[in-house]
Amino acid sequence: MKKRWTAFFLAFLLGLGLTACGKTPGPDTNTDVPPSAADSAEDTRQQTSTPFSADYWTAVRHESYDAMNDCMKTSAMPTEAWWADLYLNEDGTAQFWDVLGSYYNTSLLDGNWWLGADSTLRLTGTMNTGEPLTLDGRIESTDSLAIETPLRRYLLLCPGRAAGPRRRDGDRGPLRNVAHDPL
């Protein structure tokens, strides 16, 4: 009898704890699915009226988990060899580049973005390889965003000046970031 009451009491506490942690997502609170193109104009206005101070963002810090040493590693960005840029356009389109040396780690070319009610940011689209890509992030403040890349790295982005073209016509060498490597 005592075991039955203990099990009931633990189940009750678990249910109470889950309820205290927030509303259970129902059919109208699905945050995993982006708004459809058929959504109303009011939803579009809500998405494009951003709390951001800029539409161009550049990575200023990188964080990743080092499993071997069981700690988080943090490094400053951009560097000569590593940079990341994000464009969040008012029309809901987005572009993202994460470049290491001469290669794209991640690139979102034809992307879309939107904000969740809880300051979450989601980017979806296709990579330069044609594969689908979804990046999740959050608004840290009006002056910073955090994005998680597919390689489980976290980038803190702050407003920057527009980078311009990554290559000049006729360039055959490594990728160039004009914003971080001016002429």
UniProtKB/TrEMBL annotation:
This is AttH domain-containing protein. Residues 166-183 have a biased composition (Basic and acidic residues). The keyword Transcription does not apply. It comes from Dysosmobacter segnis. Keywords: Signal. PROSITE patterns: PROKAR_LIPOPROTEIN. Residues 25-50, 163-183 are annotated as: Disordered. Residues 1-22 form the signal peptide.
